[in-house]
Amino acid sequence: MNRLFPVLVTTAVFLIGFVVCSLQFPNFASTRVVADLLTDNAFLGIVATGMTFVIISGGIDLSVGAVIGFTTVFLALAIQQLGISPWLAFAAILIVCAAFGAAMGAVIQYFDLPPFIVTLAGMFLARGASFLMSTESIPINAPLYSELPDYAIKLPGDGQLTVIAMIMLAVFAFGIVLLHFTRFGANVYALGGSRVTAALMGVRIGRVTILIYTLSSVLAGLSGIVFSFYTSAGYSLSAVGVELDTIAAVVIGGTLLAGGYGFVFGTFVGVLIQGLIQSYINFDGTLSSWWTKIATGILLFAFIVLQQAMVGFARRRSRRAVGVTLS
Amino acid sequence: MIRMTLTGLLATALAGFACQVSAAQLTIGFSQIGSESGWRAAETSVSKSEAKKRNVNFKIADAQQKQENQIKAIRSFIAQKVDAIFLAPVVSTGWDAVLKEAQAAKIPVVLLDRDIDPSGKELYLTAVTSDSVHEGEVAGDWLAKTVGSKACNVVELQGTVGASVAANRKKGFDTAVAKHANLKVVRSQTGDFTRAKGKEVMESFIKAEGGGKNICAVYAHNDDMMVGAIQAMKEAGLKPGKDILTVSIDAVPDIFKAIAAGEANATVELTPDMAGPAFDAIIAWKDKGTVPPKWIQTESKLYTAADNPQKIYDSKKGLGY
């Protein structure tokens, strides 16, 4: 129960927020708004799943936004100018992203550098490379892209579950299984708790670290594919600053920024909360859109304080427990 | 008796309902790019006041220069079942999917200020934009008319290299000037649309053209560069507006201050009121079913000292330029 507390708080915040919006705006409580919430935040949700693994392991990945931008430009050039089949282009970019993530993980592990610096360098690299390829926004006209909306599932009401929303839900399901039900997931938690202890317990730290950053970059690549579906274009300036929105979503979702604690489901709700704030501002129509950032900042701050309080509380209790056994 | 009261009540209720329907207020959502320039801020504030004039419930979403935010805003407008959507697209590509959704929901879309790729031509009702080639022509025509048959050497301050606006404003001016043999563009350089660069380039023009004696007129692709050039001319001991004629484009408040002081001669307006014609088109379309033309060109109006520049300055300075 206590372990789940932050996730429950996040979920409650989301539900209360949704009810407040529904009471205030007549068309809010509809399947369309819910489906839009999933569709519009699909790319954020996918990349946030990867970020959850990274943060639980005690790391950070600042390169994800740039990887998304790189992916969209790569796809646009490959599909539009080189005439490669979209499926082949997807496979190619995911391999490139996997190699990129593995390289960052390896540098972090074997040169013993802080993830912040390594992934910052990765961010500049990926963003720079996408500018090198093209500074223009390139439209993608492949048939797959124009057919995609036809595969959406109609929901009761006028909402529709789009393909990209389904991809996001699948990624979240995959993330939950991987983190909570596999040995790899247990190792991620162990790494975030304490690297030294994890090593003493026999976790192969190097391998796990490389896998974590590979996973994060691959999901960023997948998110880039979804982003290219979303805008049917590749643009080197797309998804600027998304890495920070992602980190915010993960932390609001109840994951401890110091590592060792968190749930994929919490991240899902964290993403939805950010989407909800933006929807509120769009529905209101008179507020400055920068209130999205302010509201996210306030929530983030509140959750960090909540986490610190909980950590402090837990520590005091465990100390007391130790005291009892000693006496 | 009771029946009469009931009928009366029902009638009043019906009348009240009917009244509400006929006065149904239009709700229009506007997905604005952001507030990257003074002109953009003025466009936002003018569209708000134009909406108020027409009693339109107007919702603005500032996209902070991000296309994904604009797509989200359009989706949320569709969910709100607005009567129309205005869009100032940040890039020209990638709108097909979301505009198709708007079309499926039978919500008309009007583009403001910028166009989208031709593939999306069927997806919007009309586009309200200015014609930057025409702006250049208006400036050129004014100069030709003012100079008359006298020989005149013109120097040109271009906008940012590669910007389509700069290329178009140059093209329009060149076309207008080519009709008159006495007008000649002797020097043309980029001033990057900024005041500082405009001043710097004008200084070099003055030095190169015998201290400015050989220059008869300056044409700048925007007012900001002209304000810089005026400064350069004054520092060189020349009288801008008298020794050297000036004409520029945009009609920002500061150029009116210069015109009022007699230091500038003319400016061509890039109107921030793109929403006004768009509102009228939507209202006519909703009320009478009038289909607007695919392109509504805004007026490129010329302003000179004869147009009470001080008054225009006062009315424009509060718009956020």
Question: Which SSEs are present, and which pair or pack?
Answer:
The complex is a heterodimer of chains A (327) and B (321).
Chain A: H1 5-24, H2 31-40, H3 42-56, H4 64-81, H5 86-110, H6 115-133, E1 138-139, H7 143-147, E2 153-154, E3 160-161, H8 163-181, H9 183-193, H10 195-200, H11 205-231, E4 233-234, H12 242-252, H13 264-284, H14 291-326
Antiparallel strand pairs in A: 1-4, 2-3
Chain B: H1 2-22, E1 27-32, H2 38-53, E2 57-62, H3 67-79, E3 84-87, H4 96-104, E4 109-112, E5 126-129, H5 132-147, E6 152-158, H6 164-178, E7 183-190, H7 195-208, E8 217-220, H8 223-235, E9 245-250, H9 253-260, E10 266-269, H10 275-288, E11 295-297, E12 302-304, H11 309-316
Parallel strand pairs in B: 1-2, 1-3, 3-4, 4-5, 5-11, 6-7, 6-8, 8-9, 9-10
Antiparallel strand pairs in B: 10-12
Provide an overview of this structure.
- The complex is a heterodimer of chains A (327) and B (321).
- By secondary structure, chain A is an all-alpha fold.
- Chain A has a single domain, classed as Orthogonal Bundle (ABC transporter involved in vitamin B12 uptake, BtuC), CATH 1.10.3470.
- Chain A is built from 14 helices and four strands.
- Chain A has helices at 5-24, 31-40, 42-56, 64-81, 86-110, 115-133, 143-147, 163-181, 183-193, 195-200, 205-231, 242-252, 264-284, 291-326, and strands spanning 138-139, 153-154, 160-161, 233-234.
- In chain A, the strands form two sheets. Chain A has a two-stranded antiparallel sheet.
- In chain A, a hairpin with a 5-residue loop joins strand 2 (153-154) and strand 3 (160-161).
- Chain B is of the alpha/beta class.
- Chain B folds into two domains: 25-130 and 272-290, Response regulator (Rossmann fold, 3-Layer(aba) Sandwich), CATH 3.40.50.2300; 132-270 and 305-319, Rossmann fold (3-Layer(aba) Sandwich).
- In chain B, 46% of the residues lie in helices and 18% in strands.
- Chain B contains eleven helices and twelve strands.
- Chain B has helices at residues 2-22, 38-53, 67-79, 96-104, 132-147, 164-178, 195-208, 223-235, 253-260, 275-288, 309-316; strands spanning 27-32, 57-62, 84-87, 109-112, 126-129, 152-158, 183-190, 217-220, 245-250, 266-269, 295-297, 302-304.
- In chain B, the strands form two sheets. A six-stranded parallel sheet of chain B has the order 2-1-3-4-5-11, sandwiched between helices. Chain B has a six-stranded mixed sheet with strand order 7-6-8-9-10-12, with helices on both faces.
- In chain B, helix 3 runs parallel beside helix 4 (96-104) and helix 7 (195-208) crosses helix 8 (223-235).
- Chain B is elongated, with a radius of gyration of 24 Å.
- Mean pLDDT of chain B is 89; it is low at 8-23.
- Classes of the chains: A mainly alpha (327), B alpha/beta (321).
- Chains A and B meet through helix 2, strand 1, helix 11 and helix 13 of A and strand 2, helix 3 and helix 4 of B.
